[in-house]
Structure formats: C-alpha cells, structure tokens
Amino acid sequence: MLLIEYEANTPVIAQMLQLLAAFFISYLLVSLIVRFKNWHGRLSMDRDLGGVQKVHAVAVPRIGGVGIAAAVAMTSIAYAALNPFTLNTQALMLLACSLPAFLSGLVEDLTKKVSPSIRLVTSMIAALLACFALRAVIGHVGLSFVDALLYFLPVSIVFTVFAVSGLVHAINIIDGMNGLASVVAIIILSSIAVVAWQVGDELVMHVAVVAIGATLGFFAWNYPVSRIFLGDGGAYFIGFIVAELLVLLIERNSGVSPLYAILVSIYPAFETLFSIYRRKVLRGLPAGAPDAIHLHTLIYRRIVEIGAPMRDLRAVNRRNSRTSPYLWTLTLGAVVPATLFWRSPSLLMAFVAMFIVTYIWLYQAIVRFRTPGWLRQTGR
C-alpha cells in the first residue's frame, strides 16, 4: 500500500527535487558572481546610476541571468541523462532556442553596446527557432476572423514571432526594482505549472518548475537588498521561457483558452503596450526611448519615496524593495483568476477588462497626484 502511494506521488516528488536542485545551483552560481565581482566588475557592473530610468544607489553586477540560465540548463541536462525520454529532449531544445535572445542580452550587459533593434531581432530569431524545433506556433486565439488567418502557417509563424518577442521585451521593461521582474515571472510560471499539471503536460510543467527554482535562487540575492541584477540577458531568458511555455501550453492542450495566456501575462504585456502608447502617441518619442514614468517608477517616486532623504543609501534600497510588492499584488490580481478559470473564455475576458481598467485608473491617479491614501506607506 505504501509502495502504491509512493509511486502515485513520484512525479510530484521528482518535480520538487528538480525545483530544489535548480534553486541550489542558481543560488550557488549567483553567490560566486557576487563574491568575485571585483574580477569581472569592470564589464558586468551597472554603473549608469544617473540614467533617467535608474533608481538604484550603488553599482552591482547585472549578469544574474547567467546563474538562472546555467541552473536551468544544468538541471535539465542532469534530468535528461537520468530519464532519456522525448520530453527531456524537447526541454533541452527549448533552452537551445533561447540562446540568441539570452546571449544578445548578455553581450549588452557586458559591453553596453548592443542596440535595442538588434536585441529585438535576436529574440525574434529565438522565437522562429522554437517554431520549427518544437512546433511552438500560435494557431488560434479564440477569434474566428483572426483564427481564419492563423490557419495559414506563414501567417501564424509571423504572429507567433512577434507575440513571443513582445513578451520577451515586456519582462525586460518591468525589470526596474529589486525583486520585481523575478517575482512576477515566478508568479506567472507557478500558474503555468499548475495548469500544465491539471492538463497533464509534463514538458511545460517540467520547464516551468525548473525555471521557478532557478529564479528563486537568484531572488535570494536580489531582494530586499539587491547584490545583483537580472540584466538584459536574464530578463530575455526568463521572458522567452515564459512566452514559449504559454505558446506550447495553449497549442498542445485544446482545453486551455488562449485568453489564459493573455490574462496570466497581462501585467508586463500591458505595461509594454501602454508605454508604447505614451511615448509614440502622447509624447511623440521613439517607442524604445527610456523614461521614468513606468508604473513601477511612479509608485517608487510618488508613493514610496515621498518625504524620504535621497542621500541615505540604506533608505534608497529600502524604498526600492517596498515598491515591488505593489506590482506583485497587481500581478496576482490577474494571475489568480487566470489559474482558476483557464477553461472559461468569458470569465477570462472579464478579468482582462478589469485589469486594464484598474491599471489605467491607478496610473492616472498617481500621475495626477490623486493617489488614494490607503496606498501610501508611512514607515521609512
């Protein structure tokens, strides 16, 4: 009887072991990066503290993505060696497809000379590789007139490439506060893992769980005091994994509504779309121009920072860490209903509309200095 119960729980135990392995590998690798920053700091440090979008007090390495990507790869390779099945081969193929996006971001982290357009192209190349290597192609979105166009493979491939690369860059856009992008990714990946478990998609669940563990290992060094940043490489890697897992989950499991993918990732996705609208339409600036009026920077400057001394480095770090929970909560407001109602397009659409209304209301309230009192923090 005990043997039967153990065998029934073996997949869960295996997933937990993979999560723990990825966590400890990532934690160790990131600790080594932090420990030996004097060796590589000339290249890896983020010293541009005066940039318009910067809110950090001291320079730290911005190559935390190396620890995450290496931990995911090492855990997946070890698991594939012990369990040489098709799904493990596919997991490694997914990691291989991520290389163009990850490496272009990493080179930017080290040289500060890779243009946004080149990084966009490399993320598109990564998405295109996944289209052919894993058949990760969006074939339907739940709208008949769009689905009629997506029936044609070239159209669906182009649509997939733009959707994936867009979400890759969306994760990078929200990477501005201690623990923000990493925890948002963990929340989304946790939802993906839960839904994948419910529909029996072992590939998606495996990669999501390993990515969660690796990101947690980085998070331990990034919050509440940041000793290391994700960097573009880390943000692109996590963004690519999230985007591709969503494509695979939707296309491999007909019971999962395409609106689930929209709702579960709506915070970074809508932040990006809204930023493009602000820059191009309202301000007449290039879509990729940096600015200091993302929602997270507004919360930092107009809710958390008010009345606090800027010369106190510990206070700056403390305020930075106090900003992220606002956006974690906002993310949970979308991810929880997405996880509960992944089968129901009507409920998912209602929550998508609710999120958009909430986001715009919150943004306008902060911009117009009408922030509700219950959002303000009194302790410093």
From TrEMBL:
<feature type="transmembrane region" description="Helical">
    <location>
        <begin position="256"/>
        <end position="277"/>
    </location>
</feature>
<keyword id="KW-0472">Membrane</keyword>
<feature type="transmembrane region" description="Helical">
    <location>
        <begin position="178"/>
        <end position="197"/>
    </location>
</feature>
<dbReference type="GO" id="GO:0044038">
    <property type="term" value="P:cell wall macromolecule biosynthetic process"/>
</dbReference>
<dbReference type="GO" id="GO:0009103">
    <property type="term" value="P:lipopolysaccharide biosynthetic process"/>
</dbReference>
<protein>
    <submittedName>
        <fullName>Glycosyl transferase family protein</fullName>
    </submittedName>
</protein>
<feature type="transmembrane region" description="Helical">
    <location>
        <begin position="203"/>
        <end position="221"/>
    </location>
</feature>
<feature type="transmembrane region" description="Helical">
    <location>
        <begin position="55"/>
        <end position="81"/>
    </location>
</feature>
<feature type="binding site">
    <location>
        <position position="232"/>
    </location>
    <ligand>
        <name>Mg(2+)</name>
    </ligand>
</feature>
<feature type="transmembrane region" description="Helical">
    <location>
        <begin position="87"/>
        <end position="106"/>
    </location>
</feature>
<keyword id="KW-1003">Cell membrane</keyword>
<dbReference type="GO" id="GO:0016780">
    <property type="term" value="F:phosphotransferase activity, for other substituted phosphate groups"/>
</dbReference>
<feature type="transmembrane region" description="Helical">
    <location>
        <begin position="348"/>
        <end position="367"/>
    </location>
</feature>
<keyword id="KW-0812">Transmembrane</keyword>
<feature type="transmembrane region" description="Helical">
    <location>
        <begin position="233"/>
        <end position="250"/>
    </location>
</feature>
<dbReference type="InterPro" id="IPR000715">
    <property type="entry name" value="Glycosyl_transferase_4"/>
</dbReference>
<dbReference type="GO" id="GO:0005886">
    <property type="term" value="C:plasma membrane"/>
</dbReference>
<dbReference type="GO" id="GO:0071555">
    <property type="term" value="P:cell wall organization"/>
</dbReference>
<dbReference type="Pfam" id="PF00953">
    <property type="entry name" value="Glycos_transf_4"/>
</dbReference>
<feature type="transmembrane region" description="Helical">
    <location>
        <begin position="12"/>
        <end position="34"/>
    </location>
</feature>
<keyword id="KW-0479">Metal-binding</keyword>
<feature type="binding site">
    <location>
        <position position="172"/>
    </location>
    <ligand>
        <name>Mg(2+)</name>
    </ligand>
</feature>
<keyword id="KW-1133">Transmembrane helix</keyword>
<dbReference type="GO" id="GO:0046872">
    <property type="term" value="F:metal ion binding"/>
</dbReference>
<feature type="transmembrane region" description="Helical">
    <location>
        <begin position="150"/>
        <end position="171"/>
    </location>
</feature>
<keyword id="KW-0460">Magnesium</keyword>
<feature type="transmembrane region" description="Helical">
    <location>
        <begin position="326"/>
        <end position="342"/>
    </location>
</feature>
<keyword id="KW-0808">Transferase</keyword>
<feature type="transmembrane region" description="Helical">
    <location>
        <begin position="118"/>
        <end position="138"/>
    </location>
</feature>
